[in-house]
Amino acid sequence: MRRLAVCSLSAEGFAPYGEVLDASGPPTNFANNGTIEVYRDIAGIDVAADGGRVCLSVVRARGRALPFRIDVMESHPLGSQAIAPLGTASMLIVVAPAAGPLDPDHIAAFCTSGRQGVNYRRGVWHHPLIALNSGGDFLIVDRAGEGKNLVLEKLVQPLEVFVPD
Amino acid sequence: MRRLAVCSLSAEGFAPYGEVLDASGPPTNFANNGTIEVYRDIAGIDVAADGGRVCLSVVRARGRALPFRIDVMESHPLGSQAIAPLGTASMLIVVAPAAGPLDPDHIAAFCTSGRQGVNYRRGVWHHPLIALNSGGDFLIVDRAGEGKNLVLEKLVQPLEVFVPD
Q1: What is the rounded distance in angstroms from the CA atom of residue B58 to the CA atom of residue A61?
Q2: What is the pLDDT of residue A108?
Q3: Is the Cβ–Cβ distance between B142 and B55 less than 8 Å?
Q4: Dihedrals φ, ψ of A14, to 5°?
Q5: Mind listing the domains of chain A with CATH numbers?
Q6: Is-contact B94 B124, C-beta < 8 A?
Q7: Best of A56, A76, A80 to disrupt the B interface by mutation (most B CBs within 10 Å)?
Q8: Mean pLDDT across chain B, nearest whole number?
Q9: Alpha-carbon gap, residue A156 to A105, rounded angstroms
Q10: Residue B55's closest CA among A31, A52, A29, A41?
Q11: How many CB atoms lie within 10 A of CB A116?
């Protein structure tokens, strides 16, 4: 089976796919008498197409083991999708560029720190949530509304994602 | 000084002020071959007034000790505001009803579990973020746009929030 090594998630590595949700780099400002560092407006929430509105959900995911086999990818043509841990919970993030049909040769895999979230840009191919610990809760910020906002694509050849030594 | 005891945060107790962001009660549906419990569309994100848009931010807060003295409360007349921990991080939530001016006799205080978030309904009085551990990161979902969306009110008599024995 084709194999793909996981990288640690960083803003730079994830830039082609969207934004990392974390407090890294210099803050945009301070608040509450300097007790709070603010990183303001860090993700493009893009849900208004075809009359969509923003929708907050929470999901509780069963933990999955690595190596993990990727058989299918999905994309949301009408909206961005953000996912962030409520409580410490790591994710395996598997993505491919938004432009055009899924290209299996351009799939990338990242592992989050347990505190990081991500925002998938509208149309970015990604695997459905893969939690690496059981009982992890995640907050989702995505689109609600009319229209077909889910495209699934099966991989002709499955891909095994692994952590390099 | 007037004193106010903290309660554990629950959906029922917080209902007058907004929604608790957590996975509690029966899920709305399952996803990913049953590996994920979904609690969909659990909060009223209300940011469109006066041309507002949704804004995602992350803040890193210094931890504060209990008992905590409340001198000021704020409200956002143009939008809801959601706040949720990225990584385990507890908050002290201090609120008062939205209708009309701040009523110091109707302030309530809740402590989160470290995994729970909240969504303050538009106009609900609340204290700026009080993190109970240092280094906690929080995701904010609120409104960006024109207009005066912050009202501050100083308490004539400060209030001490404490954890009962």
Answers
A1: 23
A2: 97
A3: yes
A4: -90, -5
A5: 2-162 (2.60.120.480)
A6: no
A7: A56
A8: 95
A9: 12
A10: A41
A11: 27
Q: Which residue among A22, A57, A58 places its CB closest to the CB of B58?
A: A22
Asked if residues A30 and B43 have their Cβ atoms less than 8 Å apart, the reply is no
A55 CB neighbours in chain B (<8 A) are 40-41, 45
Residue B66 to residue B163: CA distance in whole angstroms: 7
How many contacts, defined by CB atoms under 8 Å, are there between A and B? 140
Cα B132–Cα B138–Cα B142 angle in degrees, nearest 5: 125
Q: Report the gap between the CA of B109 and the closest CA in chain A (Å).
A: 19
Euclidean distance between CA atoms B160 and B155, whole angstroms: 12
Q: Which of A40, A61, A85 sits opposite B57 (nearest CB)?
A: A40
Q: Which amino acid is at B105?
A: D
Residue B107 burial class via C-beta count within 10 angstroms: exposed 0-12, middle 13-18, buried 19 and up? buried
Alpha-carbon gap, residue A106 to A34, rounded angstroms: 43
The verdict on a CB contact (< 8 Å) between A86 and B27 is: no
Other Cβ atoms closer than 10 A to B113: 16
Q: What is the pTM of this model?
A: 0.95
**3-state class of B49 per DSSP?**
helix
The pLDDT tens digits for A6-64 are: 999 999 999 999 999 999 999 999 998 899 999 999 999 999 999 999 999 999 999 99
Identify the closest residue of chain B to A141 by CA–CA distance. B141
The partner residue sitting opposite A42, judged by closest CB among B27, B58, B116, is B58
Residue in A23, A55, A139 closest to B137 by CB: A23
Q: Do A87 and B82 touch (CB under 8 A)?
A: no
Task: Find chain A residues with C-beta within 8 A of B70's C-beta.
Answer: none
Here the ipTM equals: 0.94
Structure tokens at B53: 């848009």
Q: Are B140 and B83 in contact (CB under 8 A)?
A: yes
